[in-house]
């Protein structure tokens, strides 16, 4: 049998470091070696350690963010492509950190998924979005889209939680669309299909988010029993430069229509992009060209 060692090295610098801190740094260096395949030595990379410490601090703060009411939602209108009429909105999470300022969902959601906070945050987002949705009226005429993280979606009590929020906020299930990504199929396809069908039975609408990035699997698209496919903004910004992207997107839109789904183009920023996605057959649009995400109050006055 061959043994190997992964060795992490840390130095006491200007005499400030206590022994405990030194051991912790050596430990971080050792895990850096292991991640690279082991059987090596490495001096602590302090930048990596600072990132890790920073993330750990943020995670602690996130645990308190709800209590301190630092989380809020903004809403970005979704419009009909042909006449830019508002037909719904997507709820987008915002965290106003007391010292660091705004933290983006791209940082916040993965952090929440690493701790148990995702269940609580996901519940808060859905409850807040449904309460606002209920307050606005326009039943059957305005869809509230809510993002759901893959981890939250696949958890055992997700459907029960959704049902109880619909009840407690008096929300009609067809006024709500849940947005998920292909990650749910990648992580656990069998469970994903089960949950999707249970949600469908509740009468909810379903959207496949960020299509065109990552996997973009036609197989997942076919298996998705949903109502909307959302084309990612990277796809839309690519359209002007690449003829072949247009051909691919028009085929994806055709396929979505054959499968009885509508297509929402995300990240539409210019009149040219708007024209282009209409030409390719997109049904709905969302993007800065129509509106940035806004507060609930601004949305109700502008969409009224
Ligand atoms: P997403 O669901 O694809 O949301 C659309 C993102 O595109 C939003 O970023 C929105 O602000 C941005 N966007 C909208 N129009 C434009 C445009 O014209 N140009 C450009 N460049 N960007 C545009 P945001 O708010 O930073 O959210 C990022 C992602 O974080 C979301 O992507 C979603 O995956 C996730 N997220 C946001 N809120 C939640 C939430 O409540 N729960 C979960 N699980 N995820 C969330
Ligand atoms: Mg989304
Ligand atoms: Mg998206």
3D architecture notes:
The protein is of the alpha/beta class. It folds into 2 domains: 7-55, no CATH class; 68-303, EAL domain (TIM Barrel, Alpha-Beta Barrel). It is built from 12 helices and 11 strands. The protein has helices at residues 19-35, 46-65, 105-114, 117-136, 150-154, 158-168, 183-202, 218-223, 233-238, 243-258, 271-280, 296-303; strands at 6-9, 40-43, 71-80, 86-97, 101-103, 143-147, 176-180, 205-211, 228-231, 262-265, 284-285. It has an 8-stranded mixed barrel, surrounded by 4 helices. Helix 1 (19-35) links the parallel strand 1 and strand 2 (40-43). It is globular, with a radius of gyration of 23 Å. It starts with 5 loop residues before the first strand and ends with a helix. The relative contact order is 0.10. Bound molecules: ligand C2E and magnesium ion (2 copies). Residues 76, 92-93, 104-106, 109, 125, 147-149, 179, 209-210, 233, 266-269, 287-288, 293 line the site of ligand C2E.
